[in-house]
Amino acid sequence: MKLAVVALTALLCVLLFRLVMSQKASQEPRTAVEQEPRGKAKVGEGAKKKPKSAAVKAKPGVTPRPSTVATTYLTQVLEKGKFQKVGNTLSVSAGDTLQLRCKGNPVEWGVPTYLQEDNEGRLRMVQHKQYGMLILANSTGADTGEYTCYPMHCEDTDCRKEYEKAVKVFIFFPDPQELFVPSSNYYEVIQLRTNHPAVLPCQVTSPSAKVTLHHEYPPAEVKVDGSEISFSVTRGFTIHRPRPHLAGSLYCVASLGGLRQSSTKYMLVYVHYPAAPPSPVIQASSDTVALGQNLQITCMVVGEENVLVDFTWDYPGQKDSVETVQVDGQGRQQRSESVLMVEEVREVDQGTYTCTAQNLEGSRSASTTVSIPGGSSTAKLKQPRERGRLRGRLV
């Protein structure tokens, strides 16, 4: 009897435990996925998002590559385990070893032209798992210039530079014997174009050097006012608004301490560039010409003075003469004309006459159509058979 009571009591305890657990589970909130109906996204405050999967499936046939980090920066290795972040410029004594680290995998380096052409094995680039290394041993003043790290975006084996994420630093290698970056050229020709800034590099190996600009003939220092002409230790002299009086032979002089040196000579050639391509206007002596009569077509351009204009013609006939002249106009304007003479017109002279005017900034065309009564309809469809070209001359 006692055993039956004990067994009954145990059974009641088990049933009571299961009832309590069932009630507790029914009171707990369901998960976000269970609360949201399928096919509907809950919008508004308090809405819960489905958790994102941590795993990303790779596309078939594509080898995943490490993604480029959002921020790229350069550091200089000072010694083992010691680094410093570099700014826009950096100075490293000539003869020392330069070590740069650039965060990213992979990265590509850009170096001054001198190192691209002849580094004599002094330059090494090493790619590690999370960064790239540039190592330059036995540095010289000629290594002065801009160094760039380009993060690479890779898909499988195809990689391209991410120019917008590139980081640059201009590095000076001060040399007590060389104030200017050495050059193999004694003269360098620079074209002065109207309304186009011109740069005379005059690159120095030390940012502390004082640099001035000089005319060779007649000997004189050129005024650098920061507006017409400015100087930057990384770019050199910039002529913002070139003028004819600056043409000639110029050079730079650098001084530091008791040392004073001259740079490569720069031959400045002034070329007056027009502001825009010419706009030709074409006019025929008559839109309708009878067989056997003469035809004259004039192409005219009114533009800036001292600007050479070339004329090119496309026309049906092939026995015609072209005369081109340029004459001075009023003020700063100049009129250029090209005249096409067609003597004793024939059926083949019927069609479209096109004049193209070109200067250093580009070209534009103008056309006119000439009809010949009595000419066959096929003559009207003939394509131009000759291009006549004669360069204009100033008179």
Low-confidence region ranges: 24-70, 377-395
Average pLDDT across residues?
78
What global shape is seen? elongated
Helix content: under 10%
Structure report:
The chain is mainly beta and 395 residues long. 10% of the residues lie in helices and 41% in strands. It contains four helices and 27 strands. The chain has helices at residues 2-27, 32-35, 113-117, 377-380, and strands at 74-79, 82-85, 89-91, 98-103, 107-110, 123-127, 131-136, 145-155, 158-161, 167-172, 187-193, 198-200, 210-215, 220-221, 229-232, 236-239, 248-256, 259-262, 265-271, 281-284, 295-304, 310-315, 321-328, 333-342, 351-359, 362-370, 386-391. Strands 11, 13, 14, 17, 18 and 19 form a six-stranded mixed sheet that branches. Strands 2-1-4-7-6 form a five-stranded antiparallel sheet, with no helix packed on it. Strands 3, 5, 8, 9 and 10 form a five-stranded mixed sheet that branches. A hairpin with a 3-residue loop joins strand 15 and strand 16. The protein is elongated. 21% of the residues are buried.
Short description:
This protein is mainly beta and 395 residues long. 10% of the residues lie in helices and 41% in strands.
Tags for this model:
single chain, 395 residues, mainly beta, six-stranded mixed beta sheet, five-stranded antiparallel beta sheet, 4 helices, elongated, disordered C terminus
